[in-house]
Specification:
The complex is a heterodimer of chains A (312) and B (415).
Chain A (H helix, E strand, L loop, with lengths): L1 E10 L2 E11 L4 E5 L6 H9 L6 E6 L2 E2 L4 H7 E4 L11 H11 L4 H14 L15 H13 L5 E5 L7 H16 L3 E6 L2 H7 L2 E6 L2 E7 H8 L3 E8 L2 H7 L10 E5 L3 E6 L6 H10 L3 E8 L3 H9 L6
Parallel strand pairs in A: 3-8, 3-9, 6-7, 7-8
Antiparallel strand pairs in A: 1-2, 1-4, 4-5, 9-10, 11-13, 11-14, 12-13
Helix pairs in contact in A: 3-4, 3-5, 8-11
Chain B lengths: L1 H16 L1 H21 L13 E6 L4 H11 L5 E5 L1 H9 L5 E5 L3 H6 L4 E7 L5 H30 L13 H22 L4 E6 L4 H32 L1 H7 L2 H6 L5 H30 L7 H25 L3 H18 L11 H8 L2 H14 L8 H27 L2
Parallel strand pairs in B: 1-2, 1-3, 4-5
Antiparallel strand pairs in B: 3-4
Helix pairs in contact in B: 1-11, 2-8, 3-6, 6-7, 8-11, 8-12, 8-13, 8-15, 11-12, 11-16, 12-13, 12-15, 12-16
The chains are: A alpha/beta (312), B alpha/beta (415).
The complex binds adenosine-5'-triphosphate and magnesium ion.
Chain lengths: 312, 415
């Protein structure tokens, strides 16, 4: 169980996390979805004890992360976004060290190391130094080091970046298993598909704020089955705002974004109603060079919420 | 305690995988120390000239003479100056040079005609190590210069040693032809070369006994300094490990572990203590069993050196953490390392330092440790007298590691 309340983290003038609140429950994979620089890693850093929050509170399994840091740390497992491995040690030695660093020892540690090595497909490379590993193999080991000690709460920061598709499936299966065993999993990603297929609940973050939160179902109802129409070209912002309510079939469309170069509208069954939109725009003197139609999805929700694409 | 042991074990595993750097830390200071201290006459006489001076006298100018004279300006470890025979004798008698080499007339001719040639080397009895160095360098130089010119002079002159523009290697054909020739000549001349016809007569040659005695005193004077120099280099090298761990991201990961980075730091200290203890034991054993040195308190000397190593590490640790970048940190530690290296008494013996520098030396941690180490080795003090100095070292270690512990969290978080 993780509870984040009004979390804020500032670096001098830069506010990495502005206002983040959410709750991740046991047995659940909770996704933090957001573009680069949204503040996902910073949020995770505040939970894991690497960073000190400027404001707000972090509670893990009912314990305040700032008041009882050591107790909280011993229950957490962390897979950092950047690799964090001893390059001059073997895979096994890395797992043994990090397992021991989280308090595992003796036969239990040995068993877990073998089990985890087997699960990430590095059993035959266990005695090889990490320097000799490929990028994807290092990623898999980086992943394994975070859960070798069977933590109750798992913090995974984009753990599948740079991993080949087969290994990725294996890693995601592992994550699901951890959740099925009743562990709380916090998973950050900027992959839509991954978030859609993996996460039970999601928070969409942008510029340090949670802009939407809920199950996939709840989030898609926010879109109300509407499609997004993104137009590129040249537009007169004021003219568009006054024109649109008078265009037949488009009167109730939501203007998500309008600039001199872009116009983004949200509308149910938009594809069938495009001709009337185009003729109205042409009459008003707007120039349309590009049209993109997006079906309802996390992606379109994100665009709707932030006015920009996730992978900008 | 268990977390510290775990962290230390991890570092020891890593050191075991990289023994080369440990050996280098020992070897490099040993080389530097040996070379420089040899040039300074083994520490007994005040430093006069770092390079031995060889006077070269010959009745007629030979090619060999020119090559030898040229060698002094090239990479050879001695200065060569040409004089007349009379002038040379006068100067060596006045003690103005390390040695005088007199070449007989018609040297090259004599050699080619198969007659043994005698070169006379007169060494300066006032200097101990420098003339010895001249003798050794000279033997090597003579053979190289003389044989090279006699055997391959023609071919070498033929060979256009300036590579063509944009070309870094000599044409293969030429090199091949040259090597064939070298082989043939060597084969043909093997009987001429062995035994060598060219002999240097050393005047006066030190007796074997004297020589051994010099070596012994030299070693016992310089060995403690070498050991502490090696530990100084080791300490700097080991302190840099924190940067490696930071760059690998493991420091951040350990920050999130119950183990914690302060235990990691303590473990690093413990592992370094083991490694330095190993190095000190190795040097002491080598000196005892291979070089035949006798130490008054070998065990305590080893222990004292090891503790000094840890104190030096404690000095470098916080300095490493102050740097914004690894290069910056290296600059900072080097700014401390170099003065300690120069002042600590390892390089220039305390006895040869001007008084105020000798006082300064006593205030450097390695200089302070060296005085006590020497006393332990010579037997002028025993473990009992080390009680207070040990407390001083332990205080240094606590302060250094304490500071590092304070600086470490920010070091980990800083981008
Ligand atoms: N140590 C720091 N000092 C200053 N600014 C920082 C620091 N760390 C992060 N930031 C800023 O905070 C913001 C959020 O960074 P964060 O790493 O949390 O983003 P993220 O969502 O994880 O992005 P990504 O998907 O690229 O990993 C960014 O604008 C970043 O520049
Ligand atoms: Mg990130």
């Amino acid at each position: 169980m993780i509870q984040i309340t009004e979390l804020q983290k500032r670096y001098g003038d830069v506010t990495a996390v502005e206002d983040v609140s959410f709750e991740a429950r046991p047995g659940e994979i909770f996704g933090l979805l957001g573009p680069n620089g949204a503040g996902k890693s910073t949020t995770l850093g505040c939970i894991s004890g690497l960073l000190k929050p400027s404001k707000g509170s972090v509670t893990v399994l009912g314990m305040d992360a700032q008041l009882e840091p050591t107790k909280v740390k011993s229950r957490l497992g962390l897979v950092p976004q950047e690799l964090a491995l001893y390059e001059d040690l073997s895979a096994q030695e890395n797992l043994e060290f990090f397992g021991a660093a989280w308090g595992l020892g003796g036969a239990r540690l040995r068993d877990r190391v073998s089990e985890v090595l087997d699960r990430i497909g590095l059993e035959d490379r266990r005695r090889d130094r990490v320097t000799t590993f490929s990028g994807g193999m290092k990623r898999r080991l980086n992943f394994a080091c975070g859960l070798v000690h069977e933590p109750d709460v798992l913090l995974l920061d984009e753990p599948t970046v740079g991993v080949d598709p087969q290994s990725r499936v294996k890693l995601l299966d592992l994550v699901r298993e951890e959740a099925e065993r009743g562990r709380t999993v916090l998973y950050t990603t900027h992959y839509m598909e991954e978030a859609e297929s993996l996460c039970d609940r999601l928070a969409i973050v942008d510029r340090g704020r949670v802009i939407a939160c809920g199950t996939l179902q709840e989030l898609s109802t926010q879109l109300a089955e509407r499609e997004l129409v993104r137009l590129g070209g040249h537009f007169d912002v004021a003219a568009i705002r006054s024109l649109l309510p008078q265009v037949p079939e488009w009167a109730e469309a939501e203007i998500v974004q309008v600039t001199t170069e872009h116009l983004v509208l949200a509308k149910g069954e938009a594809s069938r109603k495009l001709p009337s939109l185009f003729s109205a725009l042409a009459n008003s003197g707007a120039v349309v060079r590009e049209t993109v139609l997006t079906r309802p999805s996390l992606e379109s929700l994100f665009i709707k919420l932030t006015g920009k694409e996730l992978r900008e | 305690m268990r977390p510290i042991l775990q962290a230390a074990w991890k570092d020891l595993q890593r050191h075991r995988r990289d023994p080369l750097s440990l050996i280098l830390w020992l070897a490099i200071p040993a080389c530097i120390g040996t070379l420089i201290s040899l040039a300074f006459g083994g520490g007994s006489s005040p430093a006069s000239s770092p390079r031995p001076q060889l006077l070269l006298a010959e009745s007629d100018e030979s090619l060999l003479g020119s090559i030898l004279a040229g060698a002094g300006n090239g990479g050879a470890p001695l200065d060569v100056e040409r004089t007349s025979i009379e002038e040379g004798r006068r100067r060596i008698n006045n003690g103005e040079a390390s040695a005088l080499l007199i070449l007989p007339p018609n040297l090259a001719r004599a050699f080619l005609d198969g007659e043994p040639a005698n070169l006379e080397l007169i060494t300066n009895p006032a200097q101990r190590i420098l003339p010895q160095m001249v003798e050794e360098s000279l033997e090597m130089l003579l053979e190289l210069a003389f044989y090279a010119d006699q055997l391959f002079g023609e071919s070498l002159r033929d060979l256009d040693l300036e590579p063509q523009a944009g070309q870094w290697v000599l044409p293969d054909l030429r090199v091949a032809a040259l090597s064939v020739e070298v082989n043939q000549v060597l084969e043909g001349l093997r009987q001429v070369l062995l035994p060598p016809r060219l002999q240097v007569e050393f005047v006066p040659a030190p007796t074997a006994e004297e020589d051994a005695e010099h070596q012994a005193t030299f070693l016992s004077i310089m060995l403690p300094g070498f050991l502490l120099m090696a530990l100084l280099f080791m300490a700097q090298g080991l302190s840099e490990d924190l940067w490696k761990e930071r760059e690998w991201g493991v420091l951040a990961r350990v920050t999130s572990a119950p183990l914690g980075i302060r235990n990691l730091l303590a473990g690093k200290g413990l592992a370094s203590l083991c490694v330095m203890g190993l190095a000190a034991s190795f040097v002491m054993l080598l000196a005892t069993y291979v070089l035949g040195q006798e130490f008054a308190h070998p065990f305590w000397a080893t222990l004292w050196s090891t503790l000094t190593g840890l104190a030096l590490l404690a000095l470098f640790m916080p300095l490493q953490l102050l740097g914004r970048t690894r290069q910056g940190a290296n600059m900072i530690t080097s700014c401390v390392l170099i003065p300690l290296f120069l002042l600590g008494g390892s390089l220039f013996p305390l006895e040869s330092m001007p008084d105020f520098i000798a006082v300064l030396s006593g205030w450097t941690p390695n200089g302070y440790a060296l005085v006590h180490l020497r006393a332990l080795i010579s037997g002028t003090s025993g473990p009992a007298q080390l009680f207070l100095p040990t407390l001083v070292l332990i205080a240094l270690i606590c302060i250094g590691f304490g500071l590092a512990g304070v600086l470490l969290p920010r070091f980990v978080r800083r981008k």
